[in-house]
User: Which sequence fits this backbone?
């Protein structure tokens, strides 16, 4: 069965998947995709966290992200087409 | 209500209907067609799977490599600062490490059944 | 009386932070070398821990979650694991030091070498945690620790140079780096992270609800200043007796002696009872905190309000931590020195603990209208910078001064 760890952080067109929303019937509805290295930061990506002013400004400046919301696509859970990092080879050499 | 898998579920504490800790949401499971959320996964092997690499294998091994426990999402009653289940935790299979330690160590010490109040 | 007993959680937590064995000796040493010129550090530390313990207590009373539970949720599993390893190291080092400290207090009373007492102390500690109710433990050791108040009375009898209290500078013959090293060490131990883990887990053990917000605040604003005042007692009595003689303090015996000089056998007896209660209380605080942090990171069931069999993993961590502490002590390492290494881990753990608490205390999703006001946020941010500055400076200055030598 696919798991959340299969798609979180995965590269798709437009950036990386940082979160996925679902509705009351547990149907996955949309994926939140951001450009840039930081997706989540201490919860400041949500509206409910406000302040302290300095930390919030700093966090939002670091996030500086362009967020796009794309409809959920089941193909997001299939592995990256990029070649897997050669973990077995690395282990053998190191 | 719209919830987010990453923010509202992952790494959040799961508690039973009496507020007793059950585990963390270490990962979540989707249906085969990857269209719906089916279950919460809790246990060190699920957490280790998210870490990946050597560290992930250590974390998995520390739990004796037991499979994560699967909690069907239908059992979730409410999500706030914790994920509240609608049932008592005794209805779920006990975590393997907890059971092993209970059987072999803690449960053998006199007084292990005494409640505080 | 019932109201008095309700604040023993705060008192016990604060005693574990301000007058555990490492603090008793290092604060007395600070008094002997620098007189009262570190008084401001204690004040800064008291305000800092009050600000953050109040936030943490409020988060717990409203959300019913202990703060360590929320740290992984905000920092993510990786960064939280770094925090966990550092926090566990601090807690374990302190636990070992406290078991050694109780044994040293028994050595002062009995004359038998402290290493003989170590296994006995560890066994009694574990039995107490296994069998005795949380609130009973909290009351016995919180209240017995208050016998250290004798130090404050002794301060006025011994009369240290109170004019130094307003000075922020080392006295002649001492250098600035060492002065700063001692200041950072005192500040870090005032804000030591297991205080908030223990305090909020204790709040959950006592089943706080939003109605207990006032209770939490009374605990914070009475307990921590009181703990800081007791630390001041060691600083001041030691400053009065040893500074004029140019003597150093590096043992527990020297730290308790000034009370004996002020009030004879009675004074000495009271202060040793206080040290015994404070170190045993700190040993309980740290051994439970070791279990709390590990269990709350992984989401295990924890706490003394459950039957031990229902929290077998938590009780195993507590048991193993006590055994590790005993093993460390049996290598004959000096228990007092153990806590000095804490500073290295504090540099990592303090920012990673207090930042998420500050952020969660601003989250309306959790706290509704009980989020931080302007005062809590202003002080919170200022202290976060003080903590960061101390964290950055800690290790270089530690190397520079050879650990304050």
Assistant:
């Amino acid at each position: 069965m696919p798991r959340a760890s299969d798609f979180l952080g995965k590269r798709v067109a437009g950036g990386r998947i940082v979160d996925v929303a679902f509705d009351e019937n547990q149907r996955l509805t949309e994926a939140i995709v951001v450009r840039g290295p930081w997706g989540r930061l201490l919860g400041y990506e949500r509206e409910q966290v406000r302040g302290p002013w300095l930390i919030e400004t700093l966090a939002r400046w670091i996030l500086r992200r362009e967020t796009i919301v794309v409809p959920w696509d089941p193909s997001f859970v299939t592995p990256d087409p990029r070649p897997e990092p050669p973990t077995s080879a690395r282990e053998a050499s190191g | 209500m719209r919830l987010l898998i990453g923010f509202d579920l992952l790494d959040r504490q799961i508690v039973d209907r009496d507020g007793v800790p059950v585990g963390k949401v270490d990962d979540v499971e989707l249906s085969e067609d990857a269209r719906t959320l089916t279950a919460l996964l809790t246990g060190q092997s699920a957490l280790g799977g998210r870490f990946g690499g050597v560290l992930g294998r250590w974390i998995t091994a520390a739990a004796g490599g037991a499979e994560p426990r699967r909690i069907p999402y239908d059992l979730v009653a409410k999500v706030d600062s914790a994920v509240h289940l609608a049932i008592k935790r005794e209805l779920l299979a006990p975590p393997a490490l907890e059971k092993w330690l209970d059987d072999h160590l803690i449960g053998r010490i006199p007084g292990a059944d005494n409640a505080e109040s | 009386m019932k109201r008095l007993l309700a604040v023993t959680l705060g008192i016990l937590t604060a005693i574990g932070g301000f007058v555990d064995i490492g603090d008793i000796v290092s604060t007395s040493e600070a008094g002997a070398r620098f007189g009262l010129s570190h008084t401001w550090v204690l004040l800064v530390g008291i305000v800092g821990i009050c600000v953050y313990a109040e936030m943490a207590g409020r988060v717990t009373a409203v959300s019913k979650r202990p703060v360590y539970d929320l740290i992984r949720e905000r920092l993510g599993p990786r960064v939280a694991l770094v925090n966990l390893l550092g926090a566990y190291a601090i807690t374990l080092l302190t636990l070992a030091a406290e078991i050694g400290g109780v044994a040293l207090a028994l050595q002062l009373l009995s004359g038998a070498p402290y290493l003989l007492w170590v296994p006995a102390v560890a066994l009694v500690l574990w039995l107490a945690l296994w069998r005795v109710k949380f609130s009973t433990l909290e009351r016995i050791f919180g209240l017995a620790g208050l016998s250290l108040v004798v130090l404050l009375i002794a301060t006025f009898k011994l009369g240290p140079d109170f004019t130094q209290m307003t000075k922020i500078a080392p006295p002649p013959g001492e250098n600035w780096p060492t002065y700063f090293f001692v200041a950072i060490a005192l500040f870090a131990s005032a804000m030591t992270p297991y205080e908030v883990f223990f305090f909020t887990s204790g709040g959950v053990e006592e089943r706080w609800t939003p109605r207990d917000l006032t209770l939490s605040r009374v605990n914070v604003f009475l307990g921590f200043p009181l703990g800081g005042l007791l630390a001041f007692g060691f600083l001041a009595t030691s400053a009065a007796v040893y500074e004029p003689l140019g003597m150093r303090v590096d043992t527990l015996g020297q730290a308790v002696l000034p009370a004996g000089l002020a009030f004879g056998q009675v004074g000495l007896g009271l202060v040793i009872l206080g040290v015994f209660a404070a170190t045993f209380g700190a040993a309980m605080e740290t051994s439970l905190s070791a279990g709390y942090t590990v269990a709350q990171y992984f989401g295990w069931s924890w706490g003394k309000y459950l039957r031990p069999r229902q929290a077998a993993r938590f009780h195993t961590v507590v048991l193993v931590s006590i055994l590790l502490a005993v093993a460390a002590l049996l290598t004959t390492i000096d228990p007092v020195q153990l806590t000095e290494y804490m500073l290295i881990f504090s540099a990592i753990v303090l920012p990673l603990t207090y930042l998420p608490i500050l952020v969660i205390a601003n989250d309306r999703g959790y706290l509704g209208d009980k989020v931080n006001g302007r005062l809590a946020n202003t002080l919170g941010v200022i202290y976060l910078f003080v903590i960061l500055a101390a964290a950055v400076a800690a290790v270089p200055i530690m190397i520079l001064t050879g650990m304050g030598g």
Strands of chain A lie at 11-12, 15-22, 28-34, 67-71. Chain A touches chain B at residues 1-5, 8, 18-29, 32, 40, 43, 45-46, 72, 74, 76-77, 87 (CB under 8 Å).
